[in-house]
Specification:
The structure holds 2 protein chains of 2 kinds. Helices cover 38% and strands 21% of the residues of chain A. Chain A is built from 12 helices and 12 strands. In chain A, the strands form 2 sheets. In chain A, strands 1, 2, 3, 4, 7, 8, 9, 10, 11 and 12 form a 10-stranded mixed sheet that branches. The longest helix of chain A has 31 residues. Chain A is globular. By secondary structure, chain B is mostly helical. Chain B has 2 domains: 300 residues, no CATH class; 172 residues, 2-Layer Sandwich (Alpha-Beta Plaits). Chain B is elongated. The termini of chain B are far apart. Classes of the chains: A alpha/beta, B mainly alpha. Chains A and B meet through helix 4, strand 4, helix 8, helix 9 and strand 11 of A and helix 20 and strand 11 of B.
Chain lengths: 303, 505
């Protein structure tokens, strides 16, 4: 092999490598082609109002929900704590999203979470169950293994297969609505960590390496939209918190078409460099999304 | 036909009584079937004899007074197990063979039950308390098929995309030994009742025997009076207790439950519910009987008052895992002394973690519940078991009190922890810990590892349940005497208000 041949081969390998990254890049450039931003950051308003402004900046609800489609909204309602404690997604935000989905023509909007605390208490006391119903959606249980179906995660590094809630497999549109919180084990929790509430075996994540499993499970189904609630942000003692003192009223919200970018933006709001959050880094490496916010197009909105 | 001579349409007291008893039994049935999820339920079992005796030292005296007033009316109005037997008998044979003298065995049973209770050997009183038997019958034999059916129905609807119309019922922990014991007991009792009225009431029931010690001197009783008796013998065969002797013209008041069937069916109107006229008066036998009853009432009162000698945690061995008693049970001593294993708390627990024990409390406490953290963990704000318990073995407990109540202590074995063994992030225990007694502290690099602060550990088992390590890196051992943690810092304070001023990107 002479020097010219070596250079040629290196270039070919480089091009091949670049081509591997292409699908994600192509996907992301669609929005940019239509001139729409892929991420909206909103601050200074009430949860519902911030969502309306944010989603309008992304091209309106019609960009994500088409007439007759079924939608699954995945809020975080894992803990038996009231809304003021910031342990679960803000109910007012969930209600607004459900309503907007139906207005955009969704045939049905479901919400569920595989909770940590006793599920009935979580659904009720988080205020999310009532919010979903008020918005016109359906609250589905997720407390029994019968609701879950086995799926394989071909690209997974630690998690090769897992069981996912049937509604997530069947729905046309998936909208991920986490809350931004401190997390004792993972450091911070938001978009990708919230997907742990769509699988049955949560314990496995902890025993096989939490960060890599979080990145792996986000391979299964990328949400059309991730709305990160940072109206109340738990800054310590997370993810459950022990009192309202753990919470900062921040009045912010991130809406992203790319779950990794959404998490990266939220991490920055939390005060952490996304590169230091292992699951964000892994997911970006695996091509789930990008940590480069500007490549998506960012709309910053202050109310 | 003797019934031809009966003045028609007048004698309905027995039928009304039966209807009332069925209504009460049905309420108890519904209570044990529907009791779930900390739902506020009417405190029905507070009407029951043994729970009342255990809850308050004066309970036995009130029960004795009720017997002095109305004999064993309790048995035919309020006792669901009595109604169960009578209903079966009526559905089956509905006739008895005639008078049979009471067996003296029942006095020995009462003495043994009281002695066992006083000695802290609760398995015997628990096995013979009619209220507890009825409770176990419902939760073990009726509830599983009912919730199974509900789940199946919910499953069918859900497969058609209809969620939440019928909420799934959760399963009560299945303990094979308790299930089979209950099933065999009820099978035998049912067969026996088909043939013989109220067999349990007449020969086994310690509550009935206790009431019977006073009912001979009761103000209200069923008696032969007047000249109406034709000697037809109808009364003897309709009596579920086989306690009417026609030849002696006598109703054995210590077994008569005032069901009023004989009053209804007597063609000559010779039997009636009458006031006063003590049958025994101050005879030697009567005095002996009442003295025995008084001693029994005193014994029951002392049992309820018995001091708690549970040793505090410090005196317990550090190694080994002690069983955890439900929150509100105060101490191992209080709990095991008062629990009759009726399984009300087992059915009420929304986390499904209260399980009838199989030796955790020793043979003396067989089936008295224990918290099983393999099934889940005690929910931070929940007081469902305390609300359900009628005997005072658990509760009363206010939610605010519950949040500071320590029922056990976690023990963290660092060498088993995932973070240390495999060098990967975990924190499942800390995640679930409501007080952050398990909190994550810096370990190697960006990793964090749990650290335990026992002074704010509630012993709720959230950490043990969540821990993915095998063997568990954190386990909870029960406290002999439940304690109180110090108030959490920041409790009662509001949030920090600091709206985002500008985006950091």
């Amino acid at each position: 092999m002479d020097r010219r041949e070596f250079l040629r081969r290196t270039a070919a390998l480089g091009l091949g490598g670049a081509a591997l990254l292409l699908p994600g890049g192509v996907r992301r450039s669609f929005g940019a082609l239509r001139g729409l931003p892929g991420l909206a950051a909103v601050r200074g308003g009430e949860p519902g109002e911030m969502f309306d402004r944010g989603v309008a900046a992304l091209g309106g609800m019609e960009r994500f929900v088409k007439k007759g489609q079924t939608v699954v909204i995945k809020p975080n309602m894992s803990w038996d704590v009231p809304p003021e404690r910031g342990g679960n997604t803000n109910p007012a935000l969930v209600e607004r999203i459900v309503r907007r989905c139906l207005e955009a023509g969704a045939s049905k909007v479901y919400a569920f979470d595989h909770t940590c605390d006793s599920w009935r208490n979580c659904y009720r006391n988080s205020g999310v169950e009532e919010a979903v119903k008020k918005g016109g959606g359906v609250v589905a249980p997720a407390d029994s293994s019968g609701y879950y179906q086995k799926v394989s995660l071909p690209g997974g590094r630690a998690l090769k297969e897992t069981s996912v809630h049937e509604l997530l497999m069947e729905c046309d549109v998936f909208i991920n609505v986490p809350v931004l919180k401190h997390h004792g084990g993972a450091g911070i929790t938001m978009g990708m960590k919230n997907l742990m509430g769509t699988v049955w075996n949560r314990g496995e994540f902890h025993s096989k390496g939490l960060h890599q499993c979080i990145a792996d499970v986000s391979l299964f189904r990328r949400p059309a939209l991730t709305v990160i609630d940072a109206y109340r942000m738990m800054t310590h003692n997370g993810p459950r918190g022990t009192s309202e003192r753990d919470v900062t009223v921040l009045k912010a919200q991130i809406l992203s078409t790319d779950i990794v970018a959404g998490d990266a933006a939220a991490a920055k709001i939390f005060g952490t460099d996304p590169k230091n959050v292992q699951y964000i880094r892994s997911a970006a490496e695996m091509g789930v999304g990008t940590m480069d916010l500007e490549s998506l197009g960012v709309e910053r909105i202050a109310l | 036909m003797p019934s031809d001579k009966r003045p028609s349409g007048r004698r309905t007291a027995g039928r009304i009584r039966h209807f009332l008893a069925l209504a009460v039994a049905f309420l108890f049935l519904a209570w044990f079937l529907l009791l779930a999820g900390g739902r506020t339920t009417p405190r029905l079992p507070f009407l029951q004899a043994v729970p009342s005796v255990l809850r308050w030292w004066g309970g036995a005296a009130i029960l004795a007074l009720s017997a002095l007033l109305a004999g064993r009316a309790y048995c035919s109005f309020l006792c669901p197990l009595g109604t169960f037997q009578e209903a079966l008998w009526r559905a089956g044979r509905g006739r008895s063979a005639g008078y049979a003298p009471g067996s003296p065995l029942r006095y020995w049973i009462l003495v043994l039950v009281l002695a066992a209770g006083a000695a802290g050997f609760m398995a015997l009183p628990a096995a013979l308390d009619p209220y507890a038997i009825f409770g176990r019958g419902v939760t073990q034999l009726l509830r599983p098929p009912l919730s199974g059916g509900i789940d199946r129905l919910a499953g069918v609807l859900e497969s058609r995309g209809i969620y939440g119309v019928i909420p799934r019922a959760w399963q009560v922990p299945f303990v094979p030994l308790l299930f089979w014991t209950t099933a065999v007991f009820f099978l035998l009792l049912a067969l026996w009742s088909f043939r013989k009225g109220r067999p349990f009431c007449g020969s086994l029931c310690p509550v009935g025997t206790f009431l019977g010690l006073f009912s001979r001197s009761s103000l209200l009783s069923v008696r032969f009076s007047g000249e109406g008796c034709t000697g037809c013998g109808e009364c003897e065969t309709v009596c579920p207790q086989e306690c009417i002797s026609l030849t002696e013209g006598r109703v054995d008041a210590d077994r008569c439950v005032l069901c009023l069937r004989c009053v209804d069916s007597c063609p000559g109107g010779a039997l009636s519910l009458s006031f006063g006229g003590k049958e025994e008066g101050l005879s030697r036998r009567g005095m002996l009987r009442t003295a025995l009853g008084g001693a029994a009432a005193l014994g029951a009162a002392l049992w309820a008052l018995k001091g708690d000698t549970t040793l505090p945690a410090a005196a317990w061995p550090r190694e080994g895992k002690n069983p955890v008693s439900p929150p509100g049970s105060k101490s191992r001593g209080n709990f095991t002394k008062k629990c009759v294993a009726c399984t009300a708390c087992v059915a009420a627990c929304p986390a499904g973690i209260i399980r009838p024990s199989l030796g955790e409390w020793g043979a003396a406490g067989l089936f008295q519940p224990v918290l099983d953290y393999r099934r889940g963990y005690c929910q931070y704000e929940c007081t469902a078991c305390a609300k359900a318990c009628p005997t005072g073995a658990i509760g009363p407990l206010e939610p605010e009190e519950k949040k500071l109540l320590s029922i056990g202590k976690a023990r963290f074995v660092r060498r088993n922890c995932i973070v240390r063994r495999f060098g990967t992030a975990c924190g499942a225990c800390s995640e679930h810990c409501p007080t952050q007694a398990m909190r994550m502290v810096p370990f190697r690099g960006s990793l964090t590892i749990p650290e335990l602060d026992p002074s704010i550990c509630l012993g709720c088992g959230a950490c043990e349940h969540a821990c993915p390590a095998q063997p568990k890196a954190v386990t909870v051992s029960g406290l002999g005497v439940h304690g109180k943690i110090r108030p959490l810092s920041g409790a009662g304070e509001g949030p920090v208000v600091a709206p985002l001023e500008e985006f950091p990107f």
